[in-house]
Design brief:
The complex is a heterodimer of chains A (451) and B (735).
Chain A: E1 3-10, E2 30-31, E3 34-35, H1 38-46, E4 51-57, H2 59-72, E5 78-84, H3 89-96, E6 105-110, E7 113-115, H4 119-129, E8 133-139, H5 151-156, E9 163-167, E10 174-179, E11 187-190, H6 191-197, E12 199-203, E13 206-215, H7 216-225, H8 232-242, H9 271-280, H10 283-294, E14 299-303, E15 310-312, H11 316-327, E16 344-345, E17 350-351, E18 356-357, E19 362-363, E20 368-369, E21 374-376, E22 379-380, E23 385-386, E24 391-393, E25 396-397, E26 402-403, E27 408-410, E28 413-414, E29 419-420, E30 425-427, E31 430-431, E32 436-437, E33 442-444, E34 447-448
Parallel strand pairs in A: 1-4, 1-6, 4-5, 8-14, 16-19, 17-20, 18-21, 19-22, 20-23, 21-24, 22-25, 23-26, 24-27, 25-28, 26-29, 27-30, 28-31, 29-32, 30-33, 31-34
Antiparallel strand pairs in A: 2-3, 6-13, 7-15, 8-13, 9-10, 9-12
Chain B: H1 2-9, H2 16-19, E1 31-35, E2 56-57, E3 60-61, H3 62-72, E4 77-82, H4 86-95, E5 108-113, H5 120-130, E6 137-141, E7 144-146, H6 151-163, E8 167-175, E9 193-196, E10 203-207, E11 216-219, H7 221-226, E12 229-233, E13 236-244, H8 247-254, H9 261-271, E14 278-284, E15 289-291, H10 295-306, E16 326-329, E17 333-336, E18 340-341, E19 346-347, E20 351-353, E21 358-359, E22 364-366, E23 369-370, E24 375-376, E25 381-383, E26 386-387, E27 392-393, E28 398-400, E29 403-404, E30 409-410, E31 415-416, E32 421-422, E33 427-428, E34 433-434, E35 439-441, H11 448-452, E36 491-493, E37 499-500, E38 502-504, H12 524-544, H13 558-581, H14 587-601, H15 605-623, H16 628-649, H17 653-670, H18 678-687, H19 693-703, H20 712-716, H21 718-734
Parallel strand pairs in B: 1-4, 1-6, 4-5, 8-14, 17-20, 18-21, 19-22, 20-23, 21-24, 22-25, 23-26, 24-27, 25-28, 26-29, 27-30, 28-31, 29-32, 30-33, 31-34, 32-35
Antiparallel strand pairs in B: 2-3, 6-13, 7-15, 8-13, 9-10, 9-12, 16-17, 33-37, 35-38, 36-38
Helix pairs in contact in B: 5-8, 13-14, 13-15, 15-16, 15-17, 16-18, 17-19
Classes of the chains: A alpha/beta (451), B alpha/beta (735).
């Protein structure tokens, strides 16, 4: 396929601090002990989309990502890692590399997308419809972990609206999209849009997954024309959708009146008999309108089936959620096979006596656990040293972490090289890399990082 | 379910016997309310003399179609609500045998009469008062043609009702895409925008009369947060067939201002979230349903009937009671057996010719309906027209796309242009030309006061006008001219062109809109014009859609609107203030109201201060005599009285500055009376602590660099400012 993939891998995002630091850019953040970037990369490989540009914000981050990619995907993908300056926004980053784009169609993927929707399917839809842009939309993931007490509250709350999307009857064409701050307002739809298509489905339960297929020429035109555009989701895509119905060539429009039986104008009385047919079989008519009025400019949507997993890692909460899901219900994403106990324990791990590892856990190589430990629904990285009587629940422990005796960790993220001294208690905390939690200290819902 | 099936089939009477033993299990009899009055004026002038429901539609009165369908759909009891021309409707019901029929399998028809109803809402209130309806009922207008099966819709309605008693109504809708250019359906009605929940089919939004001025459909955010998915439809047509629960009637009684079924009732229910009543839709996928709303739909539905979309409601199946059978020939030509047809006459496709009609040599009849007992001479061309009974058309006439009522006489060589409506017994003289879209009647056009209201057949409640007042003129009919009588407002005697009767001027719709709902197809020129408008529209939209700002379509005009907004706000504040002066509002409430206004216009506190100050000064000016002294006195009084209010808004120096600037502006522009007093009022403002010295000094400072013209007031109050400065210095020294 003549597709070029642009993977926007981000840089060292502020929102994910302290998990993300200068040493660990967002793309390399471990999710179930694999760097985040490996999820979209594997997916692309599976779709046979092997020609790609990874765009990283910041030189240093780019160097780290480049080093990792070239070692991990050597011979598998043709990857070019490009550094762009920070704070360009997604559209800005694309603009920066615009010269490098050569293929007919460009697939743009956000590097923080953890999904099992094949990009190939989106690309194929894009090609089939001859679209200018095709966006992947997926159902909004059920928010909040189902097993925490707060889930009741989450449900009582009105569902969080991410986008308002208008689709045509066949659910293929994207007719209207509103995102960002406009979402909370009343929905305004231009009447001419509805008039042109007759019927529009308005959905507020779909999420824009940041996976787009663009026609290259149009994308480059838009980027050039609209220099102020920073975001693909908030600006470029809405712009393309908006301009869809514009510039309807006046040539064929006279025909659209057939529907109302005014066709006698066209000097043929026989068309009056046809008028009723059109009412019954309007699809042909609609196709006509779409193809005509778009003038080859149409925006499409690929709606992921409900069963597919699709989540973006763009907050601490989503980091925990994705980790839990990848070792839990969406375990096929992790790429490993789970044991009979529904967990993965690397053979090189050493477990003390009476230590239990519950289901939905991953223990990476070289980690050691002392006696009477209990690990539930958690990820533990490489070469961690964990003492006795330690409880780890619903947490992520990255590599080379030292946890001394009697620590309790719940719902937390512990980054590389952290040291937890004896009887430290963490609940819903994020501990930045290299931090030392002192003996007996208790932390609740805090974010700790080395200064 | 089996019983329902039998019920819906049972119209013909065949299943009636089977129903008897199921009586116990049967739900209460299905009732229907048929409104034999459309409560509109669209079929005037014809409806001045005959009610719309009795107008012939392919040889049969419209109500006949409706009643036949109701019976076949399994309705047990129908109430025909008559208002205008009720005598004629009742007479018809008796003559045709609908009324007074009883017994198993046939529908009982009862006429309900009321003369003071002016809307569908009134009609339903009358029905409610009389206590006729006991269960769910079908609400339909007497001009609806359908052959759909109500079975599914009824079952859905009942099932929903069992689960949710608030589901009070099911509307039948049908797919029909309105024209992109004219924004109307093929029935000539305005396009509708509806929002429907795709799962439950609940109606969430309804907008008819979707005029072009409002370019956007706006859906409330609450609707969307409750329904993550909804379908916006522009391609649906409202069939005006509703299945209602009895609550609907009481709702009409409770809300006595509901008049129109859709505009008031449906919208009212959708907006009202306290009661939570819900309306659902049922999409008609097979079967036919259409309401004759205007002349265009009359034309469209007639063609549908001729082309047998309404089967079994087609001319050869249910033929009129006492006339001979009409037979279907090839190309949808229906001819009664006793038609006298010249050999050289040609009848084209999609035409109907009634019995006892004779057609002369070399006539051409295309796409037209000719009634009974008509006499058509030689070389007549009738195209796309509806000629009712006993019409005489002499040699060489041409009629195209027009409606010709009973008893009309077209003399030789007359030409009727497209879109005309000739009401009863009109005569058109020799070689006369009736211009396109004329409406001609023997009755004068009612004066405008009547047509303002939505009174239907307004002034003819009494029934038929038996003696047309212009019978005397008929003798002049064959002369080329008739003395013109222009005394009637808005109507002109049509004698000048050889027509006996009045040519009506078009009503409020205006002659420009005439083409929308006439029988005549829309002219090519009109379409081109619209086409042009659309492409122009395109252009303008382009601009608005080319925003330099990312997400705003309308940001460009916000600056322009700002000034406008503030002046509007000021006006409202002034009105509020004047009410307060009248003693209507106490001070706290006044502040509340002004704050409310401020929020409504989303303005700053400073704007408020300016506006309130303006109102106070305005009140002083009104109270004052012409002299400066008295103005100063009333100003002092007003400021003294309202200083608390003003102080409420002058919390910061910025707001005080705003007042000063406002004062200055007033002196220069709006109320020049104050300008000589500026320097005298300023110390007073200072004394009442409305304005602090900081503000005054800053104001003076800012003005220092301004134009000379702007400095007038600074100079005027120089002494005061000087005094303030000195006082400040003294203060400093003391410290």
């Amino acid at each position: 396929m003549d597709f070029q993939v642009v993977l926007l891998a981000g840089g060292t995002s502020e929102t994910l601090s302290p998990l993300v630091s200068r040493d660990v850019p967002k793309a390399l953040l471990p999710v179930a002990n694999r760097p985040l970037l490996s999820y979209p990369l594997d997916l692309l490989e599976a779709s046979d989309l092997k020609d790609l540009i990874v765009v990283v914000e910041g030189q240093e981050a780019a160097r780290l990502v480049g080093a990792w990619v070239s070692s991990a995907y050597l011979d598998r993908l043709r990857v070019e890692v490009v550094a762009v300056s920070e704070d360009l926004g997604s559209a800005g980053a694309l603009r920066a590399i615009s010269k490098r784009l050569t293929a007919n169609d460009i697939l743009v993927i956000s590097g923080d997308l953890v999904t099992d929707v094949l990009p190939g399917a989106v690309a194929a839809t894009h090609r089939r419809n001859g679209a200018v842009v095709t966006a992947l939309l997926c159902s909004v993931p059920v928010s909040g972990p189902s097993d925490t007490p707060s889930s009741g509250k989450d449900k009582a709350k009105k569902p969080n609206r991410l986008n308002i999307v208008g689709l045509d009857k066949t659910k293929q064409f994207l007719l209207h999209i509103v995102s960002g701050t406009e979402v909370e307002k009343d929905v305004r739809v231009h009447k001419r849009k509805i008039q042109a298509v007759g019927q529009m489905e308005i959905r507020s339960d779909l999420m824009d997954a940041h996976l787009y297929a663009f026609k290259r020429t149009i994308l480059q035109d838009v980027l050039e024309l609209k220099e102020a555009y920073r975001s693909i989701r908030l600006e470029v895509l809405p712009y393309l959708v908006r301009s869809q119905l514009r510039s309807a060539p006046s040539v064929g429009n006279g025909r659209s009146v057939d529907e109302t039986g005014n066709s006698a104008v066209l000097s043929s009385g026989n068309l009056q008999c046809l008028s009723q047919h059109r009412v019954i079989a309007p699809s042909a008519f609609k196709q006509d309108v779409l193809s005509r009025s778009c003038g080859g400019h149409r925006c499409c949507a690929y709606i992921a089936p409900k069963s597919k997993y699709c989540h973006r890692l763009n907050s601490i909460q989503s980091y925990s959620d994705i980790n839990r899901d990848v070792i839990g219900e969406a375990s096929h994403l992790s790429g490993c096979s789970f044991s009979a106990h529904n967990n993965i324990i690397h053979p090189s791990c050493v477990l003390g006596s009476k230590t239990t590892i519950g289901p939905h856990c991953i223990l990476a190589e070289g980690s050691q656990l002392g006696d009477k430990c209990s690990v539930k629904r958690s990820v533990i990285g490489r070469h961690c040293r964990i003492g006795s009587n330690v409880k780890i629940v619903n947490s992520v422990v990255m590599n080379h972490v030292v946890i001394e005796d009697g620590c309790h960790i719940q719902g937390s993220v512990v980054c590389n090289n952290v040291q937890l001294q004896e009887r430290a208690v963490l609940k819903d905390c994020q501990i930045g890399a290299g931090y030392i939690v002192t003996t007996g200290s208790e932390h609740k819902a805090e974010s700790l990082a080395r200064k | 379910m089996s019983q329902k099936k039998s019920r819906s089939r049972g119209g013909g009477g065949a299943a009636a016997a089977g129903d008897d033993h199921e009586d116990l299990a049967r739900p209460p009899p299905l009732q229907a309310v048929l409104l034999a009055d459309s409560f509109t004026l669209k079929f005037r002038p014809i409806t001045l003399e005959r009610p719309k429901v009795l107008l012939p539609l392919v040889h049969m009165p419209m109500i006949e179609y409706t009643l036949t369908w109701l019976e076949s759909a399994g309705v047990d009891e129908a109430f025909v609500f008559c208002c205008a021309h009720s005598n004629q409707v009742k007479e018809y019901l008796e003559k045709s045998g609908w009324a007074g029929r009883a017994g198993a399998g046939s529908m009982a028809v009862t006429a309900v009469e009321s003369h003071d109803a002016i809307s569908a809402g009134d009609a339903l209130r009358v029905i409610f008062e009389r206590g006729l309806i006991h269960g769910d009922f079908v609400l339909i207008s007497g001009d609806t043609i359908s052959n759909m099966s109500l079975k599914d819709a009824l079952r859905e309605h009942m099932d929903r009702k069992k689960k949710d008693p608030l589901a009070v109504m099911t509307m039948i809708i049908k797919h029909s895409k309105p024209s992109v250019l004219t924004h109307q359906t093929r029935l000539g009605t305005d396009e509708i925008v509806m929002a429907i929940d795709p799962e439950t089919k609940e109606l969430l939004y309804y907008e008819d009369r979707a005029d072009n001025s409002n370019l956007y459909v706006t859906i409330d955010k609450d609707i969307l947060s409750n329904n993550p998915t909804l379908q916006l439809h522009n391609d649906m047509e409202d069939c005006y067939i509703d299945i209602c629960s009895p609550e609907v009637l009481s709702l009409f009684t409770d809300n006595f201002d509901y008049q129109h079924l859709r505009r008031h009732f449906v919208k009212g229910l959708l907006v009202d979230d306290i009661m939570g009543y819900k309306i659902y839709t049922h999409e008609l996928r097979s079967g036919y349903a259409a309401r004759i709303d205007n002349f265009r739909s009359y034309d469209t539905v007639s063609k549908d009937i001729i082309q047998r979309w309404t089967y079994p409601m087609v001319p050869d199946v249910i033929s009129n009671r006492n006339c001979s059978e009409s037979r279907l020939h090839r190309q949808a030509i229906y001819k009664a057996s006793d038609v006298t047809l010249s050999h050289s006459a040609q009848i084209g496709a999609n035409s109907v010719v009634g019995s006892a009609t004779s057609i002369g040599d070399h006539c051409r009849i295309l796409n037209s309906v000719i009634g009974e007992g008509c006499t058509i001479g030689k070389n007549v061309v009738i195209n796309g027209s509806y000629v009712w009974d006993n019409v005489v058309i002499e040699d060489g006439c041409q009629v195209s796309n027009s409606l010709v009522s009973d008893g009309v006489h077209l003399r030789a060589g007359a030409i009727v242009e497209p879109g005309c409506v000739l009401s009863f017994n009109v005569e058109v003289g020799k070689n006369a030309l009736v211009l396109a879209h004329s409406k001609v009647s023997l009755l004068p056009q009612p004066s405008n006061e009547d047509s303002d209201e939505e009174l239907e057949y307004a002034d003819t409640n009494s029934g038929v006008t038996d003696s047309p007042p212009f019978s005397s003129m008929r003798s002049n009919g064959d002369q080329a001219t008739v003395p013109s009588e222009e005394d009637e407002s808005g109507t002109s005697e049509t004698g000048t062109c050889g027509v006996v009767g009045y040519i009506w001027t078009s009503g409020d719709a205006g002659i420009l809109e005439e083409w929308r709902q006439s029988i005549a197809p829309i002219s090519k020129e009109k379409l081109e014009e619209l086409q042009h408008a659309v492409s122009e529209n395109d252009g303008s939209e382009d601009e608005s859609n080319n925003p330099t700002l990312p997400d705003k379509d309308d940001s460009s005009d916000s600056a322009v609107e700002d000034d406008d907004l503030i002046s509007k706000f000021e006006k409202e504040v002034e009105e509020t203030f004047q009410r307060a002066m009248g003693g209507g509002v106490n001070r706290d409430n006044l502040i509340l109201e002004i704050n409310g206004l401020r929020l409504a216009y989303s303005l700053q506190h400073a704007d408020c201060a300016g506006a309130v100050f303006y109102s106070v000064m305005k009140s002083a000016l009104q109270a004052a005599q012409s002299t400066n002294d008295s103005l100063l006195k009333t100003t002092a009084e007003a400021l003294g009285k309202w200083k608390d209010l003003l102080r409420n808004y002058t919390k910061t120096v910025d707001e005080e500055m705003e007042i000063l600037l406002k004062f200055e502006e007033m002196c220069q522009e709006t109320t020049k009376e104050f300008s000589p007093l500026f320097s005298k009022i300023l110390p007073f403002l200072y004394d009442t602590e409305v304005i602090s010295e900081d503000a005054i000094l800053r104001w003076a400072e800012e003005k220092e660099h301004a134009d000379e013209s702007d400095k007038v007031f600074v100079k005027q109050s120089e002494a005061f400012i000087q005094w303030l400065k000195e006082a400040e210095e003294e203060d400093d020294e003391e410290e």
